[in-house]
Amino acid sequence: MTPQNTATSTSAAIAVVVAGVAIASLGELIDGLAVPVAVGGIGALCLAVGISLATVVGRPAVAGASLLVVPGGGAVAVALVLTAVSIGGTVFPIPDASLVSLSVLLIVGHVGVVVGTTVAALGVGLGVSGALGERSLRRFGRIGLLTAVGPALLAGALTVRALGTGETPAGAAELPLSELASLAVDPGGGGLAAWSFLLALAAAAAGVWAALAASPIRELLDGRVAAESQTGRRLDRAETALGVGAVVAAAAAAVVGTIELALSPDAISDAIGPGSYAALSGITTAGGLRRLLFGVAAAGVIVAGLAWLGRGALRRGARSVVPGLVGAAIALATAAVAEPAYAAVVEETIGRLPGPIRPRWREAAERSAAIYGEVTLVLWLIVGLIAVAVGTSLALRGVERLGYLRMEAAGYALGGGGLFLAAAFAGTIAAPAWLVFAGVLASLVVWDLGRFGTELRLEAAGARTRRLELLHAGATIGVGLLGAGLAAGIGAVVNGLAAGTPTTLALLFAVAGLVGLIAALR
Q1: Of 62 and 173, the one with more pLDDT
Q2: pLDDT at residue 174 above 50?
Q3: Which of 12, 277, 303, 390 could form a disulfide with 269 if both were Cys (CB 3.0 to 4.6 A apart)?
Q4: Whole-number pLDDT of residue 511
Q5: What's the CA gap between 20 and 10, in Å, rounded?
Q6: Residue-wise DSSP of 183-245
């Protein structure tokens, strides 16, 4: 069935072609941006397909969305970092301090073009699918978070092991899962290990909280009584206390871990006293107490899972289990290729950095690999790439809540806004004037055709409208060309009057134009 928020095929095709030509032109005609724009566009399309799949019911669609999280976020991140590093390598070192601001603006301008073209590709892709909405973004963000669980847990465990024992795995075959489990239960070493004890405490509190939240106790009570009874109030207070306790214990683990890493056991013993240190060490390193805490956490998760599945939530369960399995597979596959992948990333980055910075970057990369291991670092990189994808969905949800994506043809409006942003930043980096005006014109054409095609499809009810759409597209492009010509003339006059400050003037006009576009979208 055709989604309700899509344009007619003719208008959609014209909008896609116009957007594609504009994106390709901006990437090809601005030096150094061909590869970043292409990579960003690929990432945007992966995210668009993933968000669209998030609205489909079924395990294959959920698995597909989960698999697209990493390449989508990764391509977007690579495009932005590649642009910043490449342009930075061409302008640094700066010969004169007075040129620092111009060099920074040059980097910002190039990154802004890549951001704009990536947003444009994402918006047009979502416009074609009609999947842009609060529900699809929320589901995609949830799938991304569940996908990150496996890599994050393994990366965290390997980080704990590296800091605790100094040992790092060389590949997937050397992942010490049983050793990690025994280290969590019985740290040994004669120190405090208070940070890992606090993590066990946080896990136990979270497990009990999950069990209470999913338990059918409230459902066994009358709805009115449950809200007013003493039992209901006690459950609410207990859940709040457990949730807050879990968060506080996890935060305290990070603080205490930093202290234990910075200070020696003797220094900590002198600070709190030998007697207090011995008593505290006896509690935090007690294997029986740790086993009890992890047992409570596991029991809580099992109870919550059984209660959840017992309510007939098998369909929703697939949305949690499948991304988790995909994330676990991604973690193991990443560990298998971590060493060559880390070396490739380091060498590629070093090759694009300015000469004076390269030795420091190589030294930092080698030191990090020696402390944590390539597997750990690449796993954290995967978690970061997933965070980019999830952050993109959160950013779109924020824009949606402000009211800019609640209209019809929201995807095309987003695509038009991205093209306008790219054209505006292109004007700050000495791009040809005709390319800037063409980008602005393309942004308005994409927005207008998407809106017109969507409204026409809803109103025409299946009637043939191709001739009308072509006429409308021709009129829009014609009026846009007249406006672009007028703007070019005004720009030439203004540049002649203020030839000494072209970059600042371009930024001011870019901001003013963006404000005008936002007002028009409202």
Answers
A1: 62
A2: no
A3: 277
A4: 55
A5: 15
A6: HHH---TTS--HHHHHHHHHHHHHHHHHHHHH-SHHHHS-HHHHHHSHHHHHHHHHHHHHHHH
pTM of the model: 0.69
Q: Residue 147: which region, alpha, beta or left (left: phi > 0; alpha: psi -120 to 50)?
A: alpha
For residue 127, give Cα distances in angstroms to 4, 83, 140, 337, 475.
Answer: 11, 27, 16, 36, 22
Residues 250-281: b if buried by 16+ CB within 10 A, e if exposed: bebbeebbeebeeeeeeebbeeeeeeebeebb
Per-residue 3-state assignment (H helix, E strand, C coil) for 138-196: HHHHHHHHHHHHHHHHHHHHHHHHHHHHCCCCCCHHHCCHHHHHHHHHCCCCCCCCHHH
Angstrom distances, CA of residue 347 to CA of 81, 102, 128, 217: 14, 28, 38, 58
Three-class SS state of 406 = coil
Question: What are the pLDDT digits (tens) for 449-487?
Answer: 888 887 777 776 666 777 887 887 787 777 767 766 666
pLDDT for 519: 54
Distance of CA 510 to the CA centre of its chain: 26
Q: Which residue has the tokens 């505006």?
A: 424
Return the pLDDT at 493. Answer: 62
- Convert the pLDDT of each residue in 403-436 to its tens digit: 666 566 788 888 988 999 998 888 888 778 788 8
Query: Taking the alpha carbons of 438, 439, 441, 446 in that order, is the dihedral positive or negative?
Result: positive
Phi, psi of 499 (to 5 degrees): -70, -20
Q: How many CB atoms lie within 10 A of CB 232?
A: 16
Q: How far apart are CA 64 and CA 90, in angstroms?
A: 39
Burial readout 319-350 (b: 16 or more C-beta within 10 A, e: otherwise): bbebbbbbbbebbeebbeebbebbeebbeebe
Distances (CA, A) of 64 to 185, 387, 406: 36, 18, 26
Asked if residues 117 and 26 have their Cβ atoms less than 8 Å apart, the reply is yes
How many residues are there in the chain? Answer: 522
Structure tokens at 93: 């070192």
Q: Is the pLDDT of residue 287 over 90?
A: no
Vertex 18 angle, CA 15 and 21, to 5°:
145
Per-residue pLDDT averaged across 352-373, rounded?
Answer: 80
**Which is nearest to 249 in space by CA: 301, 199, 184, 196?**
199
CA distance 374 to 380: 10
| Contacts for 158 with CB less than 8 Å, ≥ 6 apart | 168, 169, 175, 180, 372, 373, 375, 376, 379
Mean pLDDT of 75-99: 74
Instruction: Please give the pLDDT value at position 20.
Output: 92
* Contact partners, residue 83, CB within 8 Å, separation at least 6: 32, 33, 36, 110, 111, 114
Residue-level pLDDT at 506: 54
